Structures are given as structure tokens and as C-alpha cells.
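Quick note —
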Amino acid sequence: MNRAPNRLTPAIVLAVAAATLASACTAAAPEPRPHRTAPAEAWVDPATRTELRRFYGQKLTWSACGEAYQCAELTVPMDYARPENGRTFVLPVARAATAKPGRRIGAIIANPGGPGGSGVTSLLEEGMAEAFSAQVRERFDIVSFDPRGVGGSDPVLTCGADDESAREGAAAPESGEAAMVADPFYPRTAPERTGVLAEAEREAERCARHSAGILPHVGTRDVARDVDVLRAVLGEKELTYFGWSYGTSLGTAYAEQFPRRVRAMVLDGAIDPSLEWSERAIGQGVGFQRAVTDYTRHCADFAGDSCPGSTPEERAQLIEGLFAKAAREPLPVPGQEYGVDADMLLTAVSMNMYTPEAQWKDLSEALADAERGDATRLAELAEAETETETETETPDDAGSGDSGTGTGPGPGHGHETPTDNEPAVLQAVNCFDTPHPRDEAAYWKALAPAHEAAGRYGTSSILTALTCKDWPRTTDRPHRVRAAGIEPVLVVGTTGDAATPYEEAEGLASQFPGGMLLTYEGFGHTAYGRGDVCVTRHVDAYLIDRRAVSPGTAC
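Predicted structure written out below.
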């Protein structure tokens, strides 16, 4: 899953920076600013349509929304093919203005990841601005927004609360050993697959029931169109953009539609648009399996004495033992009726591969506690990543887009939205952006190669994609980047990245005309903003001076 990375707090960034002052950084001498590649064909600006003028010509009304921030609302058409039909999204926007306007170059529009990540929350509450260096913040405003359907967007996407009544009609599981699934992440028998398929179909049906009116309009290509509207109303002739994780898909979608509008673009934690659905699922499974192996080998470097076991083999055996126990019965959580099942355990382990410096200590202590018979901490880690969505008072109205234009009062002005709709958007956008087969047999066929390549981490990725079987269709197809005439784009890849494997960074950089790759030899998801001095130096020089990064540069 392409999860919005939680940017590190300033304190953690400073601590990591202090530990990496001597970090290795291999590169040739800095090169001057790269030149725009010659366009292969004439470019037609899709924003020149007269029906879009009212959106491109709107004025943002900024108001204080915190000690150092300003907020506004941006109106964009729900359907760019029919912008005159009156249906719109209203998107919250926030900015951290530069403290030195005399040195200002412009604004950086940033996306923290997802899909489903709230840019406004990331900026106001999670330290996105502090992820950028002081030098960059002196030269740029940092601007972010909630993409269509996300967070404070109006309307907002929701799949609603899980409908327990739908489960009542399903066949009850058999009792005893006959009902035990040998591998909960690899259904092999017809009854096992029937249950998995029914759950996926229920999920798709719930999302369609609550948000059918907007599901076809939350894809990344439309979000990229919104970015261009935001660029224009900010007064920026060209876009300076930074995208982490899913934000790299958003940046790529923008680059393909508006190649001549890009001043500078950094894509950190890359997603390769040329991959088929199963290739991406298996590749990400390999990434997480590799990251867990890295954890067993390098845990002590980050967690110190908290790291369970004394060898990598002991740590691997501990994790495998817990999965075996959880497959038989949930790991106990004293004082609670529920325990940690295999799905929750997978979530707790996988989602703590993102920032080792901030997560591996807690994960280590949780694993050790679970081995001693108390899975309380594992449950807390899993639940922190799977917050359930809450219903609005009128969920169908909020999500359908059919009962209003979406121009009602925004967040903070009486508009109630789900407290966390990130899982719903994550599923919706991932399903809509990449074509998935309608035939369930294609998913069962993909399980064997996924299991061979990445075990439970591969097969679970295939099963997650099963919900996409009944999703609205997209006209997009996997393809190599088409962005003739764009300024050279900087792709940043982390060799130990689980969520966006390094191989995808290599692939994406090679597809952009004049694309540049900066390699961070380390662990965790994404690189910039985590304190590495070498990464910061190269990215800053590119953002500020558009200085090229030489081939083979590694930090």
C-alpha cells in the first residue's frame, strides 16, 4: 500500500541529522542547471478551454489558521470533461509563507503521499514544512492541499462503516481444525477463496453505495489538473513541486499533462507508471519482505537493547513464530475480548517499516511483549494504522456528489466529514488509476508467483487488489512516461524502501527525458526530510538553483 508517510517531527529530524553528519555522499562535481529537453511534438495546453477560465481566474482568500500558517479554499470542477455542469470540489489549501519575502523564488506545492493523505493536516499538524531545510523555506512558500475526496474536501469520499448485517447472510465458518486456514494470506481451497471474494465484493459495494457519484472523479489525473489550477491562482507561472510516495504518481500525472509548466520537480519514493497491477503488487510485497529482513539484521542499529533476540535468525524466528500462533488463534491482549489476528500482525509489522529511526524501537518492544504473551502493544501499532472511518450525519449526501455542488461550508465552518477517510481514498484511487481484471481467476493465478517472490507480503498485496475487480473502469493503461519538453526531473530512491522499492525509482528516472536519480543508501520509506545531509544538499541545490544531479550520485 502507498501510505502517506508521517513526516518526522523537527526534534527527530535534528537528532537524525546529528547522527548522519558524517554520512557518505558519493557524487561527481556539481553540474550547472540542466536544460529543458526539446519537445518531440507540439504541446497543446489543456487549460486553455474557455469553460475553465472561472476556475483559473479565482482568487484565494487567505486567513490565519495557526501561528505560522494561512488557509484558503480552492474550487475545481468535479468533471474536467464537463466543467460547466456546476458540480465542483472545494479543496482546503494551506501554506507556510517564507519568512524572507525579499528572497522568495515562489511556492513549492507539496503532496505528502497516500493516496488519501491530507496535505493540510500534514502541513499544519505533522511538520511537513519542517521536512524542508531552512534554506528552502527561506526561498519558497510551502503549500499543500487536500486532494479531491480527501480529508476536508467537499464532497468527501467515504465507504461508510462496515455493514455487519451483510455478514449475517454469509455462511458461518466451520468449527474445529477443519475450519482452520492453513495460510490466512494464501487461500487455496474453493471455500477459502469464496470467503475472501465475498469480503472484497462487500467492500466495493459499500464504497459504491456511499460515494458512487464521485468515485469516477478522484483519480490522479484529475488531481493533477487541480494542481495546475492551484499553481495558477497562486500566481506561479511555472510549477515547483515536491511529492513523496504517492505524490510521485501525482507529479508524474502533472508532468504528462503540463510538461512545459514545470520549473522543478522532486519525486521521492517513486512509483513506476509502466507496471501492470500484479507487477506492482508483487514488487511491493518483495519490498516489504526485504524490509523485514533488514529489520532482523539491523534492528540493533536503531532500537539498541530493545531489539528482541541476539541474532538476525532469532528475530526472524520470533516473527515467524508469532505469525504461526496468530494463524491458529489471535495473540492474547489481556483485559480485552479480542486479540491480534494474523491480519493485524501483518499490519503492525509492515507499517513499521517506514521510518526505522522512529518506529523500530516500539516495534521491537511490541514483538518481545507478544512473545511473552501480551500483544497489547502490537494491537496498538496495528490499530494506529487502521483507524476506522466514522459516518457523517448524511453519508450518502456527503459522498455521492449528487445532492449538491460541493460548495458548502468547509472544514471548521460546520461541515462534518469522516475523521479519517484515508483507507477509503487509498482503495479508490489505487483501483481507479490502474486497470484491474474483472475475472477473479486472474487474482488466484497471481497468488503462486506472489508467494514464491515474497511470501505473505506478496500474496496479501494480491488479495488487497481483489477489491478492484468491481471498481469503475479507467481509460488509463500502464505506460512509460510521456512528458516531452519537460525540465529534467529529480527522482530520489531509497535502497531499503519497502513501500516504493528502489527499482521503481530507477525505472521512473529512466523514463523522464533528462531524468536524474539520486540514490539514498539506507532503510525506510523516502529520503528527503529524514535528516541525511547529503540528500538535503543535493535536493536543495536542485530546488533553489535547479542544479543537476550527476549520474550515479549516491548518499
